[in-house]
Design a protein that fits this description.
4-stranded antiparallel β-sheet
């Protein structure tokens, strides 16, 4: 299964979410070739930039899900989309439940309601 590789970026200094292209135009990011000619690495050039990768999945409204997004599930509450280096996959993590493989989640049950940088209050249990 292949997916589109794309990013968005959080600027800690200005507290704003930007597209990858915007961060490139501000010269906060650099694209560097890897050892193989068809692969690239994206590097933040500024310590105030946090990159978030697109998971390749959309929520029930068709909104793209990125790392750091807060996902609402009517049954269990709010999750965070995160990359797990240990499992080599995107997971939904919950403060009280075990992580869940995002690719096995039914898209018609989940909705992006914010992200961990702009809406941290959504992760607090009511």
């Amino acid at each position: 299964m292949s997916r589109e590789i794309k990013f968005r970026a959080w600027d800690k200094k200005y507290k704003e979410m930007s597209s990858f292209e915007t961060m490139m135009s501000r010269r906060h990011l650099a694209i560097t070739p890897k050892l193989r000619h068809d692969q690239f690495i994206v590097l933040p050039l500024h310590e105030n930039v946090v990159l978030m990768q697109f998971t390749g999945l959309n929520d029930k409204n068709g909104k793209e899900i990125y790392e750091g997004d807060i996902i609402a599930d009517d049954t269990y509450g709010n999750y965070t989309a995160e990359w797990s280096g240990y499992y080599c996959q995107f997971l939904l993590t919950h403060v009280e439940l075990d992580p869940y493989d995002l690719t096995k989640y039914k898209a018609d049950r989940i909705e992006v309601i914010g992200n961990i940088y702009e809406n941290p209050e959504l992760l607090v249990k009511p």
